[in-house]
Amino acid sequence: TMSPDMSHLLHDTLRENGVDVVTDYAVSEITSDGVVIGDQAAAFDLVLVVTGVKPNSTLLAHAGAELAENGAVMVNDFMQTNLEDVYAAGDLTITKHRLLGTTYLPLGTTAHKQGRIAGAHAVGVTTPFQGIVGSQVLKAFDKVAVRTGLLPDEATQAGFTPLSVTSVVDDHKAYIPGATKIIIQITGDQHTGQLLGAQLIGQFGSEVAKRSDVLSSAIFNKMTVSAVSDLDLSYSPPIAAPWDAIQQATQAWEQAWRAAQKRA
Fold first, then answer.
1. 225 neighbors 257 (Cβ within 8 angstroms)
2. Which of 159, 174, 178, 228 has its CA 20 to 30 A from that of 101?
3. pLDDT tens for each residue of 237-254
C-alpha cells in the first residue's frame, strides 16, 4: 500500500530476482489450464486471490451490535460494543486513526493494541485506545519497504493540502564502507507544516523500519516536519550521520515547502 512512484522500485527488485510483475491488466478467467490476463494465458501451480478484507461480523450483527457501513463493528475507546459486557477488537472492528478519526484498517499490530485495551478494561483498568497511524513494513528479497501515516492521495481525501518530497540519502556516513542508499518520501501539510506521512525503501539491515518508527512517533504526536530536526537521534559514522537520514529528508521537505510558499 505505497504510492506508485515508490512501489515501482519494489517491482524492479522483484524482477531482478526472477519474479514477473504484471500490472494494468485484469484477470479475466481462471481455468484448470491457466490464468487469462488480458489476451495472454499463463500456467500456474498456485493461485492466490486477494480481493481485500471483509469483517466477519455476522454473529455480533445477529446479536444487535452496531455496525459501520462496511460491516465492521463499532466500538468506543475501550473496545466496548453497544452490547452490554461485549467487547470487540482487531480486524472485526473500526479503529481510531490519529489523522483520519474513525476508519477501518485491519493490521496485526492494531489488533494486539485493541485486544490489550479490551482485556485491561474488562478487569477494571480504564486506559483508552489512543489510535494508530497505519505503519506497515514489507521485506522483498534484500529490500525493505515501509510506510506510515498517510499517502499523498489519502491526505488529500482527508482534507489536507499535501506536499511530498522524495530524497535519496545514505544510511550512514559514506566514507565508512558499506553505506547504502535509502529512498525517503516525506509528506507534510502545506498550510501547517504538519508531518502527515512517510515512505521509505532501503537495503535490509539499514534500519529502514526503525527509522520509519521515529517518523511514526512524530505523526502520532502531530509534530511538524521541521520539528523532526529537533529530535536527539543517535550518531556514529558507521551507524548514521549527525543529521540522521530521516532528518536529511525532512530538511529537504522544509526547503521545498519554503520555496513553494515564496512562489505563492
1. yes
2. 228
3. 999 999 999 999 999 999
The three cell numbers of residue 78 are 475501550
Confidence bin at 45 (pLDDT 50/70/90): confident
For 101-144, the pLDDT digits (tens) are 999 999 999 999 999 999 999 999 999 999 999 999 999 999 99
> Could you tell me the CA-to-CA distances from 168 to 22, 44, 114, 182 in Å, in that order?
27, 38, 36, 6
**Whole-angstrom distance, CA of residue 150 vs CA of residue 134:** 8
pTM of the model: 0.92
Residue 146 bridge partners (DSSP):
137, 200
Per-residue 3-state assignment (H helix, E strand, C coil) for 112-143: HHHHHHHHHHHCCCCCCCCCECCCEEEEECCE
DSSP for the chain, written as a single string: ---HHHHHHHHHHHHHTT-----S--EEEE-SS-EEETTEEE--S------------HHHHHHT--B-TTSPBP--TT-B-SSTT-B--GGGB-EEETTTEEE----HHHHHHHHHHHHHHHTT-------B---EEEEETTEEEEEEE--HHHHHHTT--EEEEEEEEESS-TTSTT--EEEEEEEEETTT-BEEEEEEEEETTS-HHHHHHHHHHHHHTT-BTGGGGGS----BTTTB-SS-HHHHHHHHHHHHHHHHHHH-
